[in-house]
Write a structure and sequence with these properties.
The protein is of the alpha+beta class. The protein folds into 2 domains: about 50 residues, no CATH class; about 200 residues, MetI-like (MetI-like fold, Orthogonal Bundle). The chain is about 65% helix and about 10% strand. It has 10 helices and 6 strands; from the N terminus they run H-H-E-E-E-E-E-E-H-H-H-H-H-H-H-H. The strands form 2 sheets. Strands 4-3-2-5 form a 4-stranded antiparallel β-sheet, with no helix packed on it. Strands 1-6 form a two-stranded antiparallel ribbon. Helix 3 packs antiparallel against helix 9 and helix 8 runs antiparallel to helix 10.
Length: about 325
Amino acid sequence: MTEKTKNLFWNGLLVVFLGLMAFGIYGASVKIDYIWRWERLPQYVFYSEKQTTTAPVSGEVRIEGSKLSIVSADRDGDTVSFDSLDGVTVKNGDTVTKGSTIAETSTTKAGPLLVGLFTTLYISFFSIIFAIILGVVTGLARVSGNPFFKKLAVLYIELIRGTPLLVQIFIFYFFIGTIFNLDRVTAGVAALSVFTGAYIAEIVRAGIQSISKGQMEAARSLGMSYPQAMALVILPQAFKRTLPPMAGQFISLIKDSSLVSVISITDLTKAGREVVASTFSPFEVWFTVAALYLILTSGLSFLVQLLEKRMAAQDR
């Protein structure tokens, strides 16, 4: 059997497996006797808002190019003009009364689910940035020869990894946030950053220790100081090895960001709960929320894969 035939066989097997899964899901949905109402959801992602312009006075409409004027019928010679008015619904010479519609436009706006998605993206982005900084610094302290920094790093890592994220969010918001007057978004970002930073620190430590000690000795023999050797020789190599687990940790952070909804941040999860309360369509809403999270995590995974390929190409 040729390689092409083997690939065709396994791809066909995958299609059959996915088809069986789809059939099973369909059968389960029929069995629970649930009425699907997907038509309710689009307005919670995007919706169209109509804006109307009304006549401030009664009178006759006069249109000259993009300029619309209303000659008042009450006061001789007085006119009200509008420049570049979109969506005009009257014609030249029409008579309008005060308060009647003379123009109507529609504006597409983001619905609650899309706003929640942007909030999740905002919180996740800044949490990842601060978590990387905190994790790298703690990871370096973890492998340093200084007992104070090393034991402090171990204490931080064990304390954070040994307590639930939900509890840490409450502590940051209700205790630390009260002391330093932090708003809920800042407290949420801080909690996620500190939590993820502990895991990144261990990833960085493992990456550094996976590099042969001869690399450091060779760099020092060339006259580099310890910080120079670490920054220019060890860390670049460790970064390549730690990129896959780092990506996994970042993906976990995006999903863990759903917990900030407990401190009244309207992220994607909280927006989903609010939409469920409005539509009474829990399955449709949560499937949509899951798909939006999947888009975020898949996008991050794709970017990491591109970075891996680019770094692999540079090594050739």
